[in-house]
TrEMBL record:
Residue segments, region Disordered: 109-144
Name by which UniProt lists this protein: Uncharacterized protein
Classification lineage: Eukaryota, Metazoa, Ecdysozoa, Nematoda, Chromadorea
InterPro entries according to UniProt: CAP_sf (IPR035940)
Amino acid sequence: MRKPLLLLTVINEDSCLINSTIREFFYKYHTDLRRRVALGQEYQGKKFQEQEMYGLIYDCKLERAARRKAIQTMGGTLYVPEGVVWIDFTGDYRENNLLAALQIGLDEQVKDEESSRKATTEKGSMVERSDEREIPGAKREALL
């Protein structure tokens, strides 16, 4: 029996820094990618092997902890805490639209072999090193 293809959960929503429009964008992007991976379809020129991905859980307390960690480490070596994804992309976004920029940035991550492998494997994560001390109750089920 297959896992359900849609699991959208927001926990600690009263603590969120990112507004619901952006969170919903991430949910939709992740759900579409998850569906394509489950069906072994192509996306952004990459053919995925048919497999299951975890659903997305958005933890607003984890979001705040990740922001604190990012602020502390700006200018130095950034060790991304487990359960946190750091999406880094640059470009000229003439549309002046954050969601269009996010679409481009996430698509670039999918095209990157290592990033897409980590994001689409059940036990994978898009983290380089683990540092959970400041991330209580980190969720490892949903990484993108």
